[in-house]
Amino acid sequence: MRKLNPLWVLIAKDQMIKWLLLRLCACFCLVLTLCGGYLAMDLLLIPYYQSQQSFHQQLRLENELYKISLNERERWQNYEKMMPLFGFSDDKIKIALKLLCKNYNLTVLACRLSQEEKQEMLIKPGVLTVTSLLDSRIFSFLQHLNNKLSGVLAIKMIKLHRSRELTKDLLAKIKSGQVSDLVEATIEFEWLVF
Amino acid sequence: MWEKLTYRLNTFCDAHVLYVGKSGLLLYAGDGMQGLSDNSLNVLGKKPLILVIETSQFLQIDQSIEHIDLSDYQGEILKKIEELPLILCTVLFLPSLITKTEDRAGFSNICFLGKNYLYFQCKGVVFSVECSAENISTQIQECCLYLKRFQFSDADLNVADVEKENLIEIEIINKCAIRSGRLNAQLKDNEMVSRLISKQESGQLYRRVVCSIFSVIGGMLGIAFLLLWLNLDIFLRNHPWGQWVANKSFSEEERSKLNGFKKYLDFEEINNKCDLDKLRAIFNQFPEKIVATDVNWGMGKWKVALIINPHYLHEKSEILQWIDSNMTNSKVVESGVQESQFYLEFEG
């Protein structure tokens, strides 16, 4: 009977098989390396790129803001002027509003503040109740809030009504200077803090 | 290394032909036939070999093959071939037992060195006979018997083709048995042929192994390219190319100030300012003629309860007309209690 050389003898005898096996190992290593590369890309590089992306987005945003600050000098100056107001505590806000009311001859009946987060901003909603003899004083006060504190304080709601009925007696008292307040206003507002 | 690989690869697509015949040993190495000398033996190991054993080398008794008759030199060369590390591609036996034949299914015509041969393949060994058109049954029968002699099983023969030629299988087996008995006693070349076949088969096995490894390497390279492409794809998709534009970076303090500025702008943008000037415009337009008893503002809309001074009630239509033309989206609703009292709604 014919005798066949076993496969391993053939492989051992021939250098080409060894060479091919070497290449096979090299290919296997290459595949493993690329597999590793793929996993590294997937697990390390993508999160890194994402973090880089968010960092650069933030940087771009800051640069845009910087351009706005250069283009709109007046707003930027207003903002800079009002910067201390953003750090006001509840007490400071109350004191500031009361002082402002005093300037406009308003009597503060109540001032309440709370705190909440709205659209990624920390704000302090508040309710201020004031009384005055003339509604024009209240309008002037509101005008001040609107113009001078814009960007820090936003008026959400105004309710203004006459607190007393105008009778002959009351008119007589007004003429004699005995009555102080006739109009009452409730102002709901929001104060930005950061 | 590349030179070696190129040479090895060449062995799969180019071959030497060694012709064993009456005229001696002839080597066909791509540039014509030439006599084989001892020096030429060195050439043999460099390419695979097709061994052709010519008709005249077969001793025939009663028109059947008995054994291969080789001279001492021929035997020596064949022995060396067995020892050389060459790939024996195929062994062609060219017996001239058949005088005439014709093309039949399972057999093919080949042309070698200017002569036509009828050939068929069995167990990787090619058997050929010179083509002739007569006595085809005997020719095929002789081929079958020849194969039997060298211990190829019946299963390797195309029995269907044999039956077509009206041959009875048992008859072939019987004849084979008779001849095998006679041959076994005197055959010296049987072993040599077996060894040549064995060498040829190991060459084929070698080629199969090499081809398999090449296939695996090819497959792995394919996977490697795929992975490389995936890596490139991930890199190209996720690399923040546009992000590397030089942006000015700021100190911590500046950043915090700019972020605050953004909040300041956003806060201003999302909140509607109440337009007090519009409300004041009514009172300025009609001083002492009109009085507000109740004022409400919310969501960019004023709602005011107004009373017209009874002395100026006749001017009511004029007042309402002014409101209509000067207030945006204004709406006046009569109170229904007093003629002088009405409610006004407008945007501002």
Polypeptide structure, described:
The complex is a heterodimer of chains A (194) and B (348). Chain A is of the alpha+beta class and 194 residues long. Chain A is built from six helices and five strands; from the N terminus they run ααααβββαβαβ. Chain A has helices spanning 7-13, 15-71, 73-82, 90-103, 135-148, 168-176, and strands spanning 107-113, 116-118, 121-132, 153-162, 183-193. In chain A, α1 (7-13) packs across α2. The mean pLDDT of chain A is 83. By secondary structure, chain B is an alpha+beta fold. Chain B has ten helices and 14 strands. In chain B, the strands form four sheets. A five-stranded mixed beta sheet of chain B has the order 3-2-1-4-7. In chain B, a hairpin with a 4-residue loop joins β2 (24-28) and β3. In chain B, α4 packs across α6. Chain B is rod-shaped. At the A-B interface, α1, α2, α3, α5 and β4 of A face α1, α7, α8, α9 and β11 of B. β4 (153-162) of chain A pairs antiparallel with β11 (290-298) of chain B, so a sheet runs across the interface.
